[in-house]
Every structure is written in structure tokens, then in C-alpha cells.
Automatic annotation (TrEMBL):
Function summary: Part of the binding-protein-dependent transport system for molybdenum; probably responsible for the translocation of the substrate across the membrane.
Domain ABC transmembrane type-1: 9-217
NCBIfam families associated with the record: modB_ABC
InterPro entries, per the entry: MetI-like (IPR000515), MetI-like_sf (IPR035906), ModB_ABC (IPR011867)
Compartments (UniProt record): Cell membrane
Chief subcellular location: membrane
Record protein name field: Molybdenum transport system permease
Statement: the UniProt record of this protein carries the keyword Nucleotidyltransferase: no
Signal peptide: none
Length: 222
């Protein structure tokens, strides 16, 4: 019974960790292109990056089903390579979490990059640093607090993802059931005491993470 109870918590944390790591890599690359290189079409791309913030979860779930469904080229390729569909799997839960957490991660990383003094970056290049070395040794360290805050925000958002996950990954006990979907099932089944337990875990984790972010923000302003 304890194993059944803790599985959604463990899966939610695992999914949130993987989603935060993937979103961080994507956010750093996207923010670098937007802020550091000023690439063409940045406004259009940035709009695409932020769309998951405003789209209903049902729309995100529908789009994921369309892109990765068994009748889509992507879905058929995945099934051909791995011998199974990505739908209703842990990988689907991770993909949904990445989609919803990326915008928050991107915004925070972008803010950190934008605050880096360009004169410092220019001085490092004058001293012989390549664009990559200047980025790795100067920009990233100077923007690290914003990046860490972005990771916390992205992780928290991924931890609480529900709508797109329910449609794309499903709610299979012992396989794809997360905290959010477990709460939904508990309420539907009239097990309010179980719903409260999962809600308490979710609130506690989110509070700790947001408190940590606030503390880091306070340090940044000093």
C-alpha cells in the first residue's frame, strides 16, 4: 500500500527533474540566440516559446497527441525505432512537463543573460576568448542566479503539471500516475483523505522550492 501511495510522488519528482534538465538546456540555447546573438525572427520564435503559458492544457495535450500519435510521422518513427508508441508512457509525461516548464525557464534565463554587462563580455574577447569561452566562462557564471531561479520555477511547474499529462501520458497506476492525476482520481473516487495527503505533499514541495527561489532573489538584490 505504501508503495502504491509513494509511486505518484516518486514519478512526479523524477519527471520534474528530467523535464527541468531538458528545459534548462533548451532555454539556455534559446535565450543565447535571442539575447546574445540577436538572431533574425527572434520575436516570432519568442512568441512560440511563450505560447504554452497561455494555451489551455487541453490544447497542449491535443497537439502532443497529434504530433506523437500513432498516425503521425513522428509517432510512426518512434514506434519503428523502439517497437512501442510514446503515448501513455513515462516519456510522454516528461515531454508534457518539458513543454509547460520551458517558458518559465526561458524567461528567467533570458533575464539573466540580458543583465550581463556587455563590456565584460567584450573585454574577455579582447583578451582572446572565443564566443564559446566568453559565454561559458563569463556569461553563464554572471547569470547563474537567474538560471537557478529558472530551474526552480521550471521544476515546480513540471511537478504540478496535470492537463496535458492526463491527455498525453494518461493516468495508469504504477506506470504514469503523477501527484496531480492521483489527486484527480482520489477526488473522483470520493477518497478525500487520500487527495489531501497528495495535496499536502505537493503544497509542501512547492512551498519549499518557492521559498528557496525567494531567498535566492533576495541574495541577488544585495
Amino acid at each position: 500500500m505504501n508503495g502504491d501511495f509513494f509511486f505518484p510522488i516518486q514519478l512526479s519528482i523524477l519527471v520534474a527533474c528530467i523535464a527541468a534538465a531538458v528545459s534548462l538546456i533548451l532555454a539556455v540555447l534559446a535565450a543565447y540566440r535571442t539575447v546574445m546573438t540577436g538572431g533574425r525572427g527572434s520575436s516570432v520564435l519568442e512568441t512560440v516559446y511563450l505560447l504554452p503559458l497561455v494555451l489551455p492544457p487541453s490544447v497542449l495535450g491535443f497537439l502532443l497527441l497529434f504530433v506523437f500519435g500513432m498516425n503521425s510521422p513522428v509517432g510512426q518513427t518512434v514506434e519503428l525505432l523502439f517497437g512501442q508508441t510514446i503515448l501513455f508512457s513515462k516519456a510522454a509525461a516528461v515531454i508534457a512537463a518539458v513543454i509547460v516548464s520551458f517558458p518559465l525557464m526561458y524567461q528567467s534565463v533570458k533575464t539573466g543573460f540580458a543583465e550581463v554587462n556587455r563590456d565584460i563580455v567584450g573585454a574577455s574577447k579582447v583578451d582572446g576568448a572565443s564566443n564559446w569561452k566568453a559565454f561559458y566562462h563569463v556569461v553563464l557564471p554572471l547569470a547563474k542566479q537567474s538560471i537557478v531561479m529558472g530551474v526552480i520555477l521550471g521544476f515546480t511547474r513540471a511537478l504540478g503539471e496535470f492537463g496535458a499529462t492526463l491527455m498525453f501520458a494518461g493516468n495508469i497506476p504504477g506506470k504514469t500516475q503523477t501527484i496531480s492525476t492521483a489527486i484527480y482520481v482520489a477526488i473522483e473516487s470520493g477518497e478525500s483523505h487520500l487527495a489531501w495527503k497528495y495535496a499536502g505533499v505537493s503544497i509542501g514541495l512547492s512551498f519549499l522550492l518557492l521559498f528557496l527561489m525567494k531567498w535566492l532573489d533576495g541574495r541577488k538584490e544585495r
